[in-house]
Amino acid sequence: MPKPKPPYPPEFRARIVELAKAGRTTRRLAEEFQVTDTTVRNWVRQGEVDEGTLQDGLTTNEKQELARLRREVKVLRELGPPGTQGRSAQAGPP
Question: Would you say 30 and 37 are in contact if contact means Cβ atoms under 8 Å apart?
Fold first, then answer.
């Protein structure tokens, strides 16, 4: 399985979104900057959500917070129910 590409720099994305807002087509931008048309459309859409011009979706900050909270929940679930940390699994009830 091929390794995933590292994320594009935020400045790169911002520049492409800016050019799209100025009237350039996503297809032309994709060809020029060697990314997929879908990627450009997703970046433009996310930019609209972040600016508040599109209400359908989570902002970048909300996505980051959601990811952080999911990681936190995962850690808490791995620890088990409150009050059980440090007790041996074989010890039985107190």
Answer: yes
Evaluated on CA atoms 11, 17, 22, 23, the torsion sign reads positive
Residues 6+ apart with CB under 8 A from 60: 46, 49, 50
pLDDT tens, residue by residue, 55-90: 999 999 999 999 999 999 999 999 988 877 655 555
For the chain, first and last CA: distance in Å? 49
Q: Which domains does the chain have, with CATH numbers?
A: 10-78 (1.10.10)
Whole-model pTM: value is 0.71
Q: How many CB atoms lie within 10 A of CB 83?
A: 8
- pLDDT digit string (tens) for 5-60? 778 999 999 999 999 999 999 999 999 999 999 999 999 999 999 999 999 999 99
